[in-house]
Amino acid sequence: MSRPGYSVATDRARCEMLALDTDNLRLAVLRKSEAPRVTEYLINNRDFHKQYSQTHTDEYFTVSTQKKYLAYDCNSFLDGTLVPFWITQKGDNKIIGRVSFFNFAYGGMMSCACGYHLDKDHTGKGYMTEALRSAMAFVFDEYKIHRIEAFIVPDNTPSLNLVRRLGFHHEGIRISYMHINGKYRNHEAFYMLEDDM
Description:
- It is a single chain.
- Helices cover 30% and strands 35% of the residues.
- The protein is built from 5 helices and 9 strands; from the N terminus they run βββαααβββαβαββ.
- It has helices spanning 35-44, 46-50, 63-79, 127-143, 157-166, and strands spanning 7-8, 16-21, 25-30, 83-89, 95-105, 111-118, 147-152, 169-180, 183-193.
- Strand 5 (95-105) and strand 6 (111-118) form a beta hairpin.
- The chain is globular, with a radius of gyration of 16 Å.
- It starts with 6 loop residues before the first strand and ends with a strand.
């Protein structure tokens, strides 16, 4: 039985490899044809995301580069090593965020990590809470994952509040975990188990 909060879309568009519907959102794995939409979103939020995002050069914010990233997303999705959902509001084609699952470890671990970001004009409305909760339910159901991890910069209060609101457990600190906004930074480590949802 599937967890509540999402349904796999039956009206998938040609540009979608997979799509989920939630109460207010559409979460979709997009093909490389959607690079212009993705690039527009990234450019619009470059300054907003900079403080807590991994370091990127100017080339990252181009359609040609995003075509490569989306092609990688699709291939990795087919391989079972990445679940990259782009977020839109129902009935609107504009991308407002992303939630992805990566670092899949199967066998005895059955774990992965998650990451996410949201459009600057759509924060504080519950969209990421809805998107992450629904996407995690899908990953637990379809990939039989036991544990999902999240790693957050200690001063990213909205993200810390999000994972606590969803029921993640604090585990400790990852020292010098990722290159963020020009330097390696420590991250708070959180996890959620399949029985927590």
